[in-house]
Design goal:
The complex is a heterotrimer.
Chain A: E1 10-22, H1 24-35, E2 39-43, E3 49-50, E4 67-70, E5 73-82, E6 95-102, E7 109-113, E8 126-131, E9 142-147, E10 173-185, H2 188-198, E11 202-206, E12 213-214, E13 232-234, E14 237-246, E15 259-266, E16 273-277, E17 290-295, E18 308-313, H3 321-324
Chain B: E1 6-13, H1 25-40, E2 49-53, H2 66-69, E3 80-83, H3 89-102, E4 108-116, H4 122-127, H5 139-155, H6 160-173, H7 188-193, E5 196-199, E6 201-202, E7 211-220, H8 221-226, E8 233-242, H9 256-268, H10 274-277, E9 280-282, H11 290-298, H12 306-311, H13 328-331, H14 335-351, E10 364-371, E11 376-383
Parallel strand pairs in B: 2-3, 2-4, 9-10
Antiparallel strand pairs in B: 1-7, 1-8, 4-7, 5-6, 8-11, 10-11
Chain C: E1 4-14, H1 24-38, E2 47-51, H2 54-57, H3 62-66, E3 78-81, H4 85-97, E4 103-111, H5 117-120, H6 137-150, H7 156-169, H8 184-189, E5 192-194, E6 197-198, E7 205-216, E8 228-237, H9 251-259, E9 268-270, H10 276-285, E10 293-294, E11 304-305, H11 309-322, E12 328-335, E13 341-349
Parallel strand pairs in C: 2-3, 2-4, 7-11, 9-10, 9-12
Antiparallel strand pairs in C: 1-7, 1-8, 4-7, 5-6, 8-13, 12-13
Classes of the chains: A mainly beta, B alpha/beta, C alpha/beta.
């Protein structure tokens, strides 16, 4: 968080979703194979065995239909060292990413090698798969590779791949969590506006060319493309230009329906912004209705428009339609 | 400066469904692409370039997916572009593909637009709160509903008009084997009886969330002549216009960018009376009230008069200016593909290949797409005769 | 084909831009610079096109807010690609070829520092077989670098020479974020960052934006004394599957060069090589003469703002023509892992 008046506001932002990916016939076989501790390659039109199998042949573009199991052991074609693993990577301690050519395959596979230290890695070295204890039909069922000389990490000699896991092609959908963490920074105008809100003020900026007043302020006048001028206060009263009543619940919703989502045109401003109208039955909200901001107590304020809890009717007569029709 | 005449010689679509769990993302695209190539009587080897379009990458959780898709869609060894202009993207993608041919750079271009939004959740992807902003409007429907209200107020349109559009488009969808929603019981009454989601917009007046892809092959005049295709859809004109999301006195129910785009399109295609000279139109109507709004925005009807065309049955399949013969966005909506589906369906009409939703004798059709807060517009006019301009 | 020239170029590059991910704050002054360079206003621009990425920004439709910087009223003819601005330049060049515009303004922007760039780019890979392992771009480049080292395609010294030259050249570039008089030995003395790559072998994470104005040669701005005419512009793509590719080659770069009419006579080349060994690959694939000037700006190793770095290469190459330093120059852009997709733009002083 910044403390000077000029610095912009920052907030962490996480984009996160568990994507459900349907696999189609080829990947389904590949991932079902991994669940059964078997690596399956695709037979290409030129006879090469490609691992992982592509869905479509690189030369003929026809669907790849013939599959061929390969060994889960092979040799390193090339590698690079990951000294500081990133979240989600196969290992949390330093490891190598490598292209591994499995015995029986003609194309190498990209995966991790748990070598311990870079000095252990050598192009040409033999590596073998370390399978995950719990397998679900994901690429992570093959947890990583390890140098073939070492004792198996899981204990006694590996049992041969069985069909005791999911049967071939039985895995048709995979879940892939994707989580990205951002440091989201506001623009200078958003920051000025946000700080103003914390103080119970609504700040606007106007364009030096067309003189229109923008709330919230923008980096440039959208019409003229020039920077807007110094911020100034506007009143926290205005009118509803148009609105809708939201009845539908949805994933990620933060306000309980039914509620009125309305465009509020503050007195003196030239654009409207979306906010909530409360303190009146939804069915009684009208276009042109005069409203005033209801501010949250200081302790609950933030840098966003949520600092204004909602707008409520002032009880004054509605604005004449002609007075705001150009703002619709 | 003369353009090389260009035409659509092949169209391919997937079956649009809530979840296409039978295919991977490459598989989804190949379904449409393989059909388009077969329709054009071509193979991948005949294609000079590939233009891909789709909406935000967050829908599928893949960044710049055309990169990993290159192998599957025949783009390895070829130039490939990926367009993203929000909801209008399917249309602008087709326009970029057309430019490649019109500029004389390529002879045969494959273009595909897609969305496999069931891999996440469309509502979620469209409603992710942006820091320092207050999310109020509950997704796309909530964003547009206030502007629908403002249109109804300005035009004095009766409430049934929204339901009439929905019933019409859903009944049309029954004649489209690819359409997602296929409910024969959708009538004006059933739509009016459905729950109001974002007053004044009802549940049945809103588009579904669909997975799907649409592909076309666009060819030069010379490539058309060299092909066996006798009924190409000649591209008479294209246009794209954009305006900012918010500016003083912006009209969101009749956006200037849309009006300017249509005016340019009619002028450059020599159309002086679109109502009379356009035989049918596929326009981007994700919420039913957009039909009367776009009819005005496009110049088919005067201001505040669009709803009269709908009410009078002019836009019905057997009307004077059928709109959304395919069932439209109201019946199938893979977001990144919907714009291209409109363009492709317009092409199918003038090719005479629209099957059960064919408009007899359609010779000139409009394809239309929009995106963002009604701020990005992409349109084209296609015809059964080569362009004269 | 219509002759189209690059007539304006402005850029901003910084390590950690303390501002919004849609970069409007960077674009507004950049556009202002372009109006000063050309003497034009937005009314003179017939088509606008941008390149950027939602995932870099952390929000969907991130390019939409950037439109505020343009002054898009009355409405404009405008498009966007989710690719480096170099491909937006291609789309704009195309538009002028169709005759629907005579002039275009192209821009790219990106705030790479908003997240962990090399991790975010793992989302560009196969979502089924690779992304779940989160292979980062640096590791993938490292695989390619080691392959070349061990097969004799290049050696450590050749990579270090690229780094040393780039950093030294960057001293003259006010926009570079990494610069300094550097020798090959200075580079080799650095410890490994992602063996076999040293930190300086990898482009710095950079935020920035850039914009270029192009115009048909019958519609040049009066201020343009020596336009950089585009004599060829082409791009191509390789397969994504790393196992099916020969990582020591970039056929798409060779195809792009050939599609642009070849590189004979090119005196200055700005190559978008985010990793030092990739410059070596590109020099060979593009068929560049061994004695020409490469990356006088310092190239991507001096600053690599995502989604404008490729456009900047073209801008920098154009500048060498404007300044009389060269008559024929080349700008190159790349996208995807290990040089998967490439664009080449060859320019010449007005014929």
């Amino acid at each position: 968080m910044t403390s000077t008046a000029e610095a912009v506001l920052h907030q962490p932002l996480t984009l996160e979703f568990d994507y459900t990916r349907s696999l189609g016939p080829v990947l389904s076989q590949y991932l079902s194979g991994l669940a059964a501790r078997q690596v399956i390659g695709g037979v290409l039109s030129d006879g090469r065995i490609a691992v992982p199998p592509p869905e479509y042949d690189p030369l003929t573009h026809a669907p790849v239909t013939r599959m061929q199991p390969v060994a889960d052991e092979g040799s390193v074609v090339t590698w690079s060292w990951v000294a500081e693993p990133l979240p989600g990577q196969p290992l949390e301690r330093p490891f190598a990413f490598a292209l591994v050519l499995l015995d029986g395959a003609d194309t190498p596979l990209l995966h991790a090698v748990d070598a311990g230290e870079p000095e252990t890695m050598r192009t040409g070295m033999r590596v073998r798969a370390r399978w995950a204890q719990e397998r679900t039909g994901s690429v992570r069922d093959l947890a990583c590779f390890e140098p073939a000389g070492t004792a198996p990490a899981s204990g006694p000699a590996e049992e041969p791949p069985t069909s005791a896991g999911p049967s071939p092609a039985s895995v048709t959908v995979g879940i892939t969590p994707v989580r990205l963490a951002y440091d989201y920074a506001a623009s200078p105008e958003e920051s000025v506006f946000g700080r103003g809100l914390r103080e119970g003020r609504i700040l606007a900026q106007s364009c030096p060319v067309c003189h229109k007043v923008y709330v919230p302020p923008r980096g440039a006048c959208p019409v003229d493309g020039v920077p807007t001028q110094a911020p100034f206060d506007v009143a926290d009263t205005g009118i509803v230009t148009t609105f809708c009543i939201v009845n539908v619940p949805f994933l990620g919703q933060r306000i309980k329906p039914p509620y009125v989502s309305a465009y509020v045109l503050l007195d003196g401003a030239d654009i409207a912004f979306l906010h909530l109208i409360l303190g009146v039955e939804a069915s009684k909200v009208r276009m042109g209705m005069r409203v005033r901001a209801v501010w949250k107590p200081e302790a609950e304020r933030s840098y966003s428009m949520e600092t204004i809890s909602h707008f409520e009717p002032t009880g004054e007569p509605d604005a004449d339609f002609e007075s705001y029709r150009r703002h619709l | 400066m003369s353009k090389v005449p260009a035409a659509v010689i092949g169209v391919g679509q997937t079956h649009y469904r809530a979840k296409r769990e039978d295919v991977s993302i490459p598989g989804l695209l190949r379904e449409a692409i393989d059909r388009a190539l077969a329709d054009a009587e071509l193979t991948f080897d005949d294609i000079d370039a590939v233009v891909v379009g789709k909406a935000p990458d967050l829908f599928e959780g893949v960044m710049m997916p055309e990169l990993f898709l290159a192998d599957a869609i025949g783009a390895a060894g070829k130039p490939m572009l990926r367009v993203h202009t929000a909801g209008s993207v399917g249309g602008s993608t087709a326009i970029v593909a057309t430019s490649l041919v019109q500029a004389g750079v390529h002879q045969r271009v494959l273009t595909v637009a897609f969305e496999k939004q069931s891999e996440s959740n469309a509502m979620w992807a469209l409603s992710i709160p942006v820091p320092f902003t207050m999310p109020v409007h509950a997704g796309a429907g909530g964003y547009f509903a206030p502007h629908v209200r403002s249109y109804i107020r300005r035009s004095g349109a009766p409430t049934e008009v929204g339901a009439m559009v929905a019933a019409k488009d859903r009944q049309n969808a029954l004649r489209n084997p690819y359409a997602h929603l296929r409910n024969p019981d959708t009538t004006v009454e059933s739509v009016l009886a459905s729950q109001v989601l974002w007053d004044p917009v009802r549940y049945d007046e809103t588009c579904p969330s669909s997975d799907g892809a649409c592909a076309m092959v666009i060819a030069s005049e010379a490539a058309v002549a060299a092909s066996g295709i006798t009924n190409p859809a000649w591209i008479h004109g294209t246009v794209m216009r954009s305006e900012p999301l918010a500016y003083a006195e912006r009209d969101q129910a009749n956006p200037r960018a849309g009006r300017d785009a249509a005016a340019y399109l009619w002028r450059t295609t020599g159309i002086t009376d679109p109502r009379a000279e356009i035989d049918c139109a596929e326009i981007y109507v994700p919420f039913s009230w957009f039909e009367p709004m776009w009819l005005e925005n496009l110049g088919f009807a005067g201001e505040r008069e669009g709803w009269r065309l709908t009410e009078a049955g002019v836009t019905a399949l057997d009307g004077d200016l059928p709109v959304n013969m395919s069932g439209g966005v109201l019946s199938s909506n893979p977001i990144g593909a919907s714009g291209m589906i409109r363009f492709a369906e317009a092409a199918l009409q003038v090719m005479g290949e629209a099957g059960e939703h064919q408009v007899d004798g359609a010779r000139r059709a409009l394809g239309h797409a929009y995106g963002g807060g009604s701020q990005f517009f992409a349109m084209w006019v296609v015809g059964s005769a080569p362009p004269s301009n | 084909m219509r002759d189209v020239a690059v007539v304006g170029f402005a850029q901003r590059q910084t390590r950690a831009f303390d501002g919004s991910p849609n970069c409007v704050e960077l674009l507004v002054p950049i556009l202002h610079e372009l109006w000063e360079q050309t003497g034009w206003t937005k009314a003179d621009i017939g088509f606008w096109c941008s390149g950027s990425s939602d995932y870099l920004a952390g929000r969907s439709f991130s390019f939409v807010t950037a439109i505020d910087a343009l002054g898009a009223v009355p409405p404009i003819s405008e498009s966007h690609v989710e690719m480096d601005g170099a491909w937006a330049l291609y789309e704009a060049w195309l538009k002028i070829q169709t005759g629907e515009a005579d002039t275009a303004l192209v821009y790219g922007f990106g705030k790479s520092s908003a997240s962990t760039l090399r991790r975010t780019l793992a989302l560009q890979l196969d979502p089924y077989t690779l992304t779940p392992l989160w292979p980062d771009t640096v590791s993938i480049a490292g695989l390619q670098a080691r392959l070349g080292l061990e097969r004799g395609a290049w050696d450590e010294k050749a990579m270090a020479e690229v780094v040393a030259r780039s950093r030294s050249n960057a001293i003259g570039n006010e926009y570079a974020v990494r610069r300094g008089e550097t020798s090959i030995d200075d580079v080799l003395a650095q410890e490994m960052f992602a063996d076999p790559l040293r930190r300086w072998d990898c482009a710095p994470v950079t935020d920035g934006a850039a914009a270029v104005v192009i115009a048909a040669t019958d519609r040049l701005p009066a201020t343009c004394r020596r336009p950089a005419v585009i004599v060829g512009i082409a791009h191509s793509t390789d397969a994504a599957d790393l196992g099916l590719r020969d990582l020591l080659r970039s056929p798409s770069a060779a195809a792009a060069a050939s599609g642009a009419g070849g590189t004979e006579g090119v005196q200055v080349a700005e190559l978008h090589a985010p990793f030092s060994h990739q410059e070596l690959i590109l020099r060979r694939e593009l068929g560049l003469a061994p004695d020409i000037a490469i990356n006088p700006s310092g190239g991507a190793l001096a600053a690599n703002p995502m989604f404008s770095a490729g456009l900047i290469r073209i801008g920098e190459a154009a500048r060498r023509i404007w300044s009389d330093e060269a008559d024929r120059t080349l700008g190159h852009a790349t996208s995807g892992a290990a040089l998967q997709q490439n664009l080449v733009c060859v320019m010449e002083a007005s014929a």
